[in-house]
Amino acid sequence: KNEVEQSPQNLTAQEGEFITINCSYSVGISALHWLQQHPGGGIVSLFMLSSGKKKHGRLIATINIQEKHSSLHITASHPRDSAVYICAVMPNYGGSQGNLIFGKGTKLSVKP
Amino acid sequence: DTGVSQDPRHKITKRGQNVTFRCDPISEHNRLYWYRQTLGQGPEFLTYFQNEAQLEKSRLLSDRFSAERPKGSFSTLEIQRTEQGDSAMYLCASSFNRNGYTFGSGTRLTVV
């Protein structure tokens, strides 16, 4: 079982829809990242969370440390939001000092 | 500062050849990470440096892989005697301690 699980794996939405992507993890963490990857490979960091909720524009990220769960929400989705969204956690066990453990990603396609 | 730069963007090589990739991190960042990503999967940790010291290496980093960060600035990742299974996207990221994670655009390696 992967230490970081995302759902759904693939998501197709119509422009304007509200989107939720979920991330569950099984290890103790010091922080969780939401990342965006466009075709071509480059990764952009959207949020880093250790508690509560963060908002940036149409993106909202929440985390529940007790339940080991995080969600990424996109309001009023747009075709330019089409990308792979990756959840990554920074574990706080052993000697790990900052390497991330990644989920497999959620491929989002927003249709006009 | 233009972010994290990786060179080359694409590399096609014949099986058995050696390849070297370069990563230039954000200048203020003391940590530098290498990850490998295969199609449809999230990135996997390979190794990381704090300044010039290589502090952690994954079991994925076989003897054919070596990474250096000689002056605590740029880093190189060398793969000797490449195999078809080495075909992947190689991602570099940098941070200041655990903050400000920034990823490069990656180097896509194809071994034929």
The residue ranges of chain A in which pLDDT falls below 50 over 5 or more consecutive positions are none
Give the overall silhouette of chain B. Answer: globular
Strand content of chain A: over 45%
The share of residues in extended strands of chain B comes to over 45%
Q: Give the largest interface.
A: A-B, 26 and 29 residues
- The number of helices of chain A is 0
**Percent helix among the residues of chain B?**
under 10%
Q: How many helices of chain B in DSSP terms?
A: 0
Entry keywords:
heterodimer; A: 112 residues; mainly beta; six-stranded mixed β-sheet; five-stranded antiparallel β-sheet; 11 strands; 0% helix; globular; B: 112 residues; seven-stranded mixed β-sheet; four-stranded antiparallel β-sheet
Structure description:
The complex is a heterodimer of chains A (112) and B (112). Chain A is mostly beta strands. Chain A is 0% helix and 59% strand. Chain A is built from no helices and eleven strands. Chain A has strands spanning 4-7, 10-14, 19-25, 29-37, 43-49, 52-56, 59-64, 69-74, 83-91, 101-102, 106-111. In chain A, strands 2, 4, 5, 9, 10 and 11 form a six-stranded mixed sheet that branches. The radius of gyration of chain A is 14 Å and the shape is globular. The termini of chain A are far apart. Chain B is mainly beta and 112 residues long. In chain B, 0% of the residues lie in helices and 54% in strands. Chain B has strands at 5-7, 10-13, 19-24, 31-37, 44-50, 53-57, 65-68, 75-79, 88-96, 99-103, 107-111. Chain B is globular, with a radius of gyration of 13 Å. The chains are: A mainly beta (112), B mainly beta (112). The interface between A and B is medium-sized, with 26 and 29 residues.
